[in-house]
Design brief:
CATH superfamily of chain B: SCP2 sterol-binding domain
Helix content of chain B: 55-70%
CATH topology of chain B: Nonspecific Lipid-transfer Protein, Chain A
CATH class of chain B: Alpha Beta
Strand order of the largest sheet of chain A: 1-9-6-4-2-3
Distance between the termini of chain A: 46 Å
Largest sheet of chain B: 5 strands, mixed
Largest sheet of chain A: 6 strands, parallel
Distance between the termini of chain B: 31 Å
Order of helices and strands of chain A: EHEHHEHEHEEEEEHHHHHHHHHHH
Shape of chain B: globular
CATH superfamily of the largest domain in chain A: Dehydroquinate synthase-like - alpha domain
Structural class of chain B: alpha+beta
Oligomer: heterodimer
Strand order of the largest sheet of chain B: 3-2-1-4-5
Number of helices of chain A: 16
Helix content of chain A: 40-55%
Strand content of chain B: 5-15%
Strand content of chain A: 5-15%
Radius of gyration of chain B: 15 Å
Number of strands of chain B: 5
Number of domains of chain B: 1
Number of strands of chain A: 9
Chain lengths: 395, 175
């Protein structure tokens, strides 16, 4: 028998579908929450999404004590400290995060501080420093991409040192994720495209990495199928709530997959480019995904070939000879990127972003090697490899 | 028979944990690639590798001259980063070079407690050391990619590393 072994864990209750938000007060109350702090950003408030949540808590057994709506696009230590202060001052006992990856990760950071005590979040950086249960945290994603609503990881910017700091612990999982189609309905096309490519990358990397396992594969392949079948429908018809819901489910499924199988060099590069050049995470994922798959071809050709079925459907899968399926999978992802570029000018190369300078490649490559996800990439990546990948993704 | 095999595995893992710490110390004194990696570690940074729940462990600390020092019996060096095997059987797989460190992490057999970016530096030091001290056909199973290195250079470095380990035994005793 082989030495194969894996673990799979996702304790997050997922409440999904029509009027899912309306379940939130009851679910929070049975977890001991009665005074909740809402954490969100100004865009969510301006889009009117906050109102959906506040309305369902009116006349409920849970009081929304206050709303913090100034989370920046990149979650950072100082904001987390400020929100933790508000939580303590207003004697809250639970949190509701409404937003995308930054809001969710910020809320996880706040939860660490208010549950463990103190103001020094970095004291809990890394894996395994959190041992006891945290306060109830509900997440209402407003993008379909990050998957953070079902992961045990938070990535926070340390702006002083210009780096991203990862926090990992089994207690960092939110308690409940609420997927309600109303919350992603007004997402602009550019952000819809970026976040969907983020989810697609989570699923692809989970399905080909060293830590892949049969259960996470099922989630990853299911997520890829939903994204490939619904992304362009949503881009053409942003008000299509059913397709929006499919994308939201796909992002959560991809999140469950990569929370267990982890990710690889696309994320290592993306985290580093994000930190050095301040590009949005989803954009980085979209740029690097095909180049990283090509790089990994020799180590996991079979796994990349298997992506073709969920990416292109059974008919096309059957038409492509077995030995060409891996390259065709990568081609299918390039097609999606080209369509998104035509639709909303989502950059396909580093050059197209207009925000990356080749002089930054060395510092990006060095940061890439120290990113935790690199160890789970199927093929070894050294400094020269990282530089080659950056060159390949340039134009 | 099963108990005897399990007992032999424990003895082997105890010895290898003892040896790996000393090999890392020695390799840090002779190999430039490992020295370049250590530069990225904070001053006096210490890391441990141990076997849960109460198995053997080694602790290695960065020295002011940029080399590593493997903790001896009476030293008190708290580790800022710990790599833990969840069970002695998992440790045996890695330390008998049937499974790479990366594969062991991926298979959830190991835990990394501490800053992840520093953990990546430590893993690269371990991989490099294993590539130098093990025959190529064994090292290829222990690391994701065997480095491009000439046989003569590898042998020279390997001999220097083993001599350093032996010299260390005579200098300080074997604990």
């Amino acid at each position: 028998m082989s030495n194969n072994f894996y673990e799979f864990f996702c304790p997050v209750k997922i409440i999904a579908g029509q009027a899912a938000l309306e379940h939130a007060p009851y679910e929070l109350s049975i977890r001991g929450g009665s005074k909740a702090l809402v954490i969100t950003d100004s865009g969510i408030k301006a889009a009117g999404l906050l109102e959906h949540v506040l309305t369902v808590f009116e006349k409920s057994q849970v009081e929304i004590v206050t709303v913090y709506d100034q989370v920046p696009p990149d979650s950072c230590l100082s904001v987390i400290k400020e929100i933790a202060g508000i939580y303590r001052q207003r004697q809250c006992d639970s949190m509701i995060a409404i937003g995308g990856g930054s809001v969710i990760d910020t809320s996880k950071g706040v939860n660490i501080l208010v549950s463990e005590g103190g103001d020094d979040l970095l004291a809990y950086a890394g894996h395994g420093h959190l041992k006891r249960p945290l306060k109830p945290l509900f997440v209402v994603p407003t993008t379909a991409g990050t998957g953070s609503e079902v992961t045990s990881i938070a990535v926070i910017s340390d702006s002083e040192k210009g780096r991203k700091v990862a926090f990992g612990s089994h207690v960092l999982f939110p308690d409940v994720a609420i997927l309600d189609p109303r919350m992603t309905q007004s997402l602009p096309p550019f952000i819809t495209a970026m976040t969907a490519m983020d989810a697609l990358t989570h699923a692809c990397e989970a399905a080909i990495g060293l830590a892949k396992n049969p259960i996470s594969d099922a989630y990853a392949h299911g997520a890829i199928k939903k994204i490939s079948q619904n992304l362009m429908t949503v881009m053409d018809n942003p008000g299509d709530l059913d397709s929006r819901m499919e994308l939201a489910e796909a992002a959560t499924m991809a999140g469950i997959a990569f929370s267990n199988s982890l990710v690889g060099v696309v994320h290592s590069l993306g985290h580093s480019v994000g930190a050095v050049c301040h590009l949005p995470h989803g954009m980085c994922m979209s740029i690097f995904l095909p180049y990283a798959l090509e790089y990994n071809l020799e180590s996991c050709r079979e796994e990349i070939a298997e992506l073709l079925l969920p990416l292109a459907g059974a008919e096309r899968f059957a038409q492509v000879p077995e030995q060409q399926r891996a390259e065709t999978s990568i081609g299918a992802i390039r097609e999606i990127r080209d369509q998104l570029y035509q639709h909303c000018q989502l950059p396909r190369t580093l050059k197209e972003t207009g925000k990356v300078n080749k002089d930054q490649f060395e510092s990006i490559a060095r940061a890439t090697l120290n990113d935790g996800s690199i160890i789970f990439n199927a093929k070894e990546v050294d400094f020269d490899d990282a530089m080659s990948l950056l060159e390949a993704a340039w134009d | 028979m099963i108990k005897i095999v399990a007992r032999l595995q424990v003895i082997y893992v105890n010895f290898m944990i003892w040896l790996v710490g000393r090999l890392l110390e020695a390799a840090s004194k002779v190999d430039k690639r490992i020295q370049e990696e250590i530069v990225a570690l904070p001053t006096a940074f210490a890391f441990s590798m141990r076997v849960l729940p109460s198995g053997p462990e080694f602790t290695v600390q960065k020295q002011p001259d940029g080399t590593l020092y493997c903790k001896r019996k009476n030293d008190k060096i708290p580790a800022e980063l710990t790599i833990s095997f969840k069970h002695v059987k998992h440790a045996f797989l890695v330390l008998s070079f049937q499974e790479s460190t990366a594969r062991s992490f991926a298979n959830d057999r190991m835990l990394l407690d501490g800053e992840i970016d520093l953990g990546m530096v430590v893993v690269r030091c371990l991989d490099r050391m294993e590539s130098l001290v093990l025959p190529k056909f064994i090292a290829m199973r222990a690391v994701k990619r065997y480095p491009s290195i000439s046989l003569s250079k590898k042998l020279t470095l390997a001999v220097k590393i083993y001599v350093q380990v032996l010299a260390g035994l005579f200098r300080r005793g074997h604990v």
